Amino acid sequence: MPDARTHDMITIASAVALAPLAQIAQMSALGLSALDARPNSAWLVIAHVVSGVLFSPDLDLDSAIDDRWGVFFWIWRPYMWAVPHRSTWSHSLIFAPLLRLAYFYFVSIGLILGATWLLGQVGIVVPDYPQQLSAAISQATASHPDSSLAFLIGFCTGSAAHSIADWLVTGGKHILYGMGLQVRRDYRHHDRYVPRQRRARR
């Protein structure tokens, strides 16, 4: 399968291709002007890149992707342990990216609740940030339904670009092997990639 750098290039290239397509689709299907369609297109492209680079399907293994979260790499450990690599749970086109988005939301809410409880134990009262965050997301979604839908579509396409690339490489290798051709590039270490600094943590 392609490595992280190759997947990044695929994500960026597909984002560049999606930008004009999103504009054209909104102008023709929804009858929007180019100016009115621009914000939704921007949200779609942003979500596509964020999904492909930070919320990649390869978060189901210890790889270069969770390294990008820096000191917060550990929030993906339960997801990594629970989700089988290259399964429907991680590499499907729609369900998997929405699962990662929901996972990140609930983990964030849980961390905020935990921090609020700990501060309360030492007498520090903080505002109800989890409720405020949920209300802000709900209000933004209700106020800007088109942009919210564009964001979700972009989040799914960013993940799909990764999954489809994996499927094409895997399927292409099987076809070439069936034709008696040998693929010299070995992607096996992609699945077993363990960063040097992570080996020290184990």
Q: How much helix, percentage-wise, in residues?
A: over 70%
The overall pLDDT, averaged over residues, is 84
In terms of DSSP E residues, the strand content is under 5%
Shape: flat
How does this model look, in words?
This protein has 202 residues and is mostly helical. The chain is built from ten helices and no strands. It has one domain (4-111, 145-201). 73% of the residues lie in helices and 0% in strands. Helix 1 (4-30) crosses helix 8. The two termini are 25 Å apart. The mean pLDDT is 84.
Topology:
Blueprint: H1 4-30, H2 34-53, H3 64-67, H4 77-82, H5 88-91, H6 95-121, H7 129-143, H8 145-178, H9 188-191, H10 196-201
Helix pairs in contact: 1-2, 1-8, 2-8, 6-8
Q: Keywords, please?
A:
single chain; mainly alpha; flat; 202 residues
Q: What's this, in brief?
A:
This protein is 73% helix and 0% strand.
